[in-house]
């Protein structure tokens, strides 16, 4: 008996259908997608993402106008396309409740195994619809498949470069070293002036010659007389003697903190996939959106915006709005965080962020091992996956 995997299309949340198919698909299986005509456009995209040949994919489309969404009409349209010599694996996660009830009713007349894919806890429930509710014959399986960043973004129709992540400029040890200097307030005003000038005047340069910046002959250049002294103090040795390359300029003006967060998450949470500086966009956007640090943990997407400092309430609000905009681009599927070395003494920024469903971690959090352990454990709880050391 041939086997067909059946999913009800939910354009806004294709993950359950994708993971269910990844779990139960075997070579030679057919796919059947049930959808309203309005949702049908993503069937081809989903099949492509799954890597299934077009000849193995079928669809049943329900017209979404007039009286065509009446229960009996839905049942008739579906039933006409089914046959008794096929074994159906039906995933009931997806579509409206009305559609799901109709689909379930029709498939009960055929050789069908019923499943429900629960992505929140990464589980698939296999159930039998019968008259007995006391025999405990439901079966629960953990979803073993783990989706990567590039794969996840593509599933939601987002162009991205997660498969070509930004490389780290320095190792974890140096990022920890800078974190220590910053949090222990070992940097003076001259050091902060150097970093500020680098950020405002030279961050976007392809490279700078250190000697020229310290003693510029061009009056249009902004001098940084203490640049070499600053580099010596923090122990930063340029890759090319006498020069700072673009990546190094970005690193010294805040990129180091992104790398610190990247290394910290990688070491403590053990995500399945993690990257820095990923750019995402969709057809409705004219510009890219950059994710400072993003990672997948048990098929959940996490995004962290990293800021060494937040100097005003208006700037903080701009950051929150940016993160909210990213959540909208990601269709609300991300778990969003802001990590900042600014101390939120009154807790007002935490409240603002929390109101927007964003977790704000400030200086007091980042410098407290106990608090950071709690934050990591909370991330793991959202993923419903234990941390493996």
Could you write a compact summary of the structure shown?
By secondary structure, this protein is an alpha/beta fold. The protein has helices spanning 15-24, 41-50, 71-79, 97-107, 149-155, 172-183, 189-202, 210-214, 227-234, 246-268, 313-329, 348-355, 363-366, 369-383, and strands spanning 2-8, 30-36, 57-62, 86-91, 112-118, 123-127, 139-142, 159-160, 207-209, 243-245, 273-281, 289-297, 300-307, 334-340, 358-361. 39% of the residues lie in helices and 22% in strands.
Question: What do these coordinates show?
Answer:
The chain has about 400 residues and is α/β, with parallel strands linked by helices. Helices cover about 40% and strands about 20% of the residues. It is built from 14 helices and 15 strands. It has helices spanning about 15-25, 40-50, 70-80, 95-105, 150-155, 170-185, 190-200, 210-215, 225-235, 245-270, 315-330, 350-355, 365, 370-385; strands at about 1-10, 30-35, 55-60, 85-90, 110-120, 125, 140, 160, 205-210, 245, 275-280, 290-295, 300-305, 335-340, 360. Strands 3-2-1-4-5-6-7 form a seven-stranded mixed sheet. A six-stranded mixed sheet has the order 8-11-12-13-14-15, sandwiched between helices. Strands 9-10 form a two-stranded antiparallel ribbon. Strand 12 and strand 13 (about 300-305) form a beta hairpin. Helix 6 packs across helix 10. It is elongated, with a radius of gyration of 26 Å. The model has no long low-confidence stretch (mean pLDDT about 90).
């Amino acid at each position: 008996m041939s086997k067909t995997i059946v999913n009800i299309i939910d354009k806004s949340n294709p993950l359950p259908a994708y993971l269910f198919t990844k779990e139960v698909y075997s070579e030679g299986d057919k796919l059947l997608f049930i959808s309203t005509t309005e949702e049908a456009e993503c069937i081809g995209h989903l099949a492509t993402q799954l890597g299934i040949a077009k000849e193995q994919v079928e669809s049943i489309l329900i017209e979404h106008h007039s009286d065509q969404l009446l229960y009996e009409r839905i049942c008739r349209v579906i039933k006409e396309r089914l046959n008794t010599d096929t074994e159906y694996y039906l995933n009931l996660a997806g579509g409206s409740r009305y559609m799901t009830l109709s689909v379930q009713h029709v498939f009960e007349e055929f050789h069908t195994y019923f499943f429900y894919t629960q992505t929140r806890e990464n589980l698939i429930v296999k159930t039998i619809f019968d008259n007995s509710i006391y025999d405990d014959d439901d079966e629960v399986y953990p979803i073993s498949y783990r989706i990567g960043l590039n794969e996840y973004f593509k599933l939601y129709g987002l162009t991205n470069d997660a498969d070509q992540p930004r490389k780290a400029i320095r190792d974890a040890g140096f990022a920890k070293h800078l974190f220590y200097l910053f949090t222990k307030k070992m940097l003076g005003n001259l050091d902060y002036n150097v970093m500020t000038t680098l950020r405002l005047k030279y961050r976007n340069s392809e490279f700078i010659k250190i000697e020229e910046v310290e003693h510029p002959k061009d009056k249009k250049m902004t001098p940084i007389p203490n640049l070499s002294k600053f580099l010596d103090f923090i122990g930063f040795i340029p890759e090319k003697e006498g020069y700072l390359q673009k990546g190094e300029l970005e690193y010294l003006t805040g990129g180091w903190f992104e790398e610190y967060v990247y290394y910290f998450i990688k070491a403590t949470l053990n995500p399945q996939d993690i990257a820095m500086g990923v750019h995402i966009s969709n057809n409705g956007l004219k510009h890219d959106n950059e994710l400072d640090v993003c990672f997948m943990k048990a098929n959940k997407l996490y995004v962290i915006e990293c800021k060494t400092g937040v100097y005003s309430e208006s700037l903080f609000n701009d950051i929150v709005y940016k993160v909210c905009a990213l959540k909208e681009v990601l269709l609300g599927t991300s778990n969003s965080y802001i990590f900042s070395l600014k101390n939120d003494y009154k807790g007002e920024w935490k409240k603002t962020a929390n109101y927007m469903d964003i977790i704000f971690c400030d200086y007091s959090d980042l410098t407290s091992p106990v608090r950071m352990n709690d934050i990591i454990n909370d991330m793991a709880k959202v993923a419903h996956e234990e941390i493996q050391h």
